[in-house]
Every structure is written in structure tokens, then in C-alpha cells.
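Much of what follows relies on a compact textual record of a protein's fold. A record is reproduced here so that you can trace the correspondence yourselves:

. . .
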Amino acid sequence: MAFEVCFWGVRGTIACPSMSHARYGGNTSCVQLRLDDSVIIFDAGTGIRELGNDLQKQKTREAHLLMSHTHWDHINGFPFFAPGYDSNWSFKIMAGHLSGSESGIEEVLNAQMVSPMFPVPLETMQAKLNFEDFKAGEQFKIASNVNIRTAPLRHPNGATGYRVEYNGKSVCYITDTEHIPEKPDQNILELIEDSDLVIYDSTYTEEEFLTKAGWGHSTWNEGLSLCQSANVKKLAIFHHDPNHDDDFMDGIEAEALSTSENCFVAREGMIISLD
């Protein structure tokens, strides 16, 4: 039974489509899970445009879009998502950080597609869009054999971490989040325990993190520490800072691998099989 993780966007903050970012990729956050007949999409950063073009070639015509949060780098690819304009498609779009607020996930996605910011309104999309807000910490199923667990993350305006369990395997998507030095996040530790793969917000180096308090991001070092404490098999270093070009990312990869073989730096276009 297939369980694949596909990276369509691995950057944070803002897209950086330049030659100096070509090997790791310049699109912002978007990760697809292929679970046999089920499709799960994490976030709608600029990487979702290419994902949409690929989905149009597939037989599947329904998917779940799970949002970590709604800062620009995680939503501004949505207006360019081709399946959203195709009446043959159905999407359930879910978010866990807006429950109880005045604006839910539908209102937020709609707000970025109104004049004068964008010429094509949300209602132009012909796909069947079902929006649902839940409270981070809840769990639910998207199919009889696909279980989703969630947890709140430390990030300005809130964010949600996810754990997807299928066929005895599990993947966790943990971005965006800011750690407190020497105080491991218990919500994250519980969520990722014994998982096969953790995709973790590794925006900053340890040195950069010291000057970025309150910005809502973490480091690969903290991600690796959490994964080691929680008996995780593999860490995916993710949400790369746009100032970290390919050469800089090569250095991060070398340093991380010298610390542990149980990690890798996520690249745009990378596909990981958990079979």
C-alpha cells in the first residue's frame, strides 16, 4: 500500500525563484501525501501551483487541504491552484488555529482574493470547496483508515501541527513553531512520538535564532533533539530561510548529517516513500 511524501515547496517567508536557490527550490510551503486513493495537502504556499498542475493529470478528483496557519507564505499559492477552478474536483479545507475567531479559514482565503489585491474572487472557483475550522489538539479521520492527530504550535497568530497515520506508518508536519531553549515542547513531543518522518520548521541556524526571538521559527538542531527524544526515524529539515541559498543549504546539510544520519534537507521535487 502506497504512502508517499512529495515536497512541492520547501521555503519559508517568501518565494525566491533564483538560480542560487534552484537545487533546493524557491517555492514556499506545500507538501503532498499520497495514501493510495487518498490525497492530503499540507499548506497552500506557492508550491501548490505546480502540485495543482500535476493533480490535473491524475485520476483522483478529491483531496484534503490541511493548513498549518494562514500567513502569506502558506496561503498565497491558493489563487493559482488549477484544480480549484475545475468543477470535477472536491476539496475539504481545514485549519485548527482560527476556531473561535471572527474569521475562519474560508473568510481568510476569500480575503486574499478580493479587489484591489486580486482580480479573481474566491467564488470564481468551480470546485466543491468544503471549509472546516477545528481546534488544534483535536483528532479526526479523513477515511476509515487515515487518522489525523493535531497539536497547537508556538507561532504568532497561532499554528497547528499534524500527524497522519496510515497503514501502520506516520508522518508529522510541524511548521511554523518557535522553541524555547532547554524547554522541549511537550505538545510536539507527544504528537511525533515513534513517527516515521517529521517535517520540521528549521528556518534559522542556532546563531540566527538568538536574534529572532518572537518571530515564530525554530532550528534543525531543535528538530533533531525533539526527534531523538521521541524515537522518530527520520527528520526532514524544512521551511528554509530565503536568505539561505543553495551553497548555504549544502553547509546545513553537511553539518546536520555529521550530527545524525537520521535526517535530510527537504528539496523541492523530492519524493519519500514510507512503504
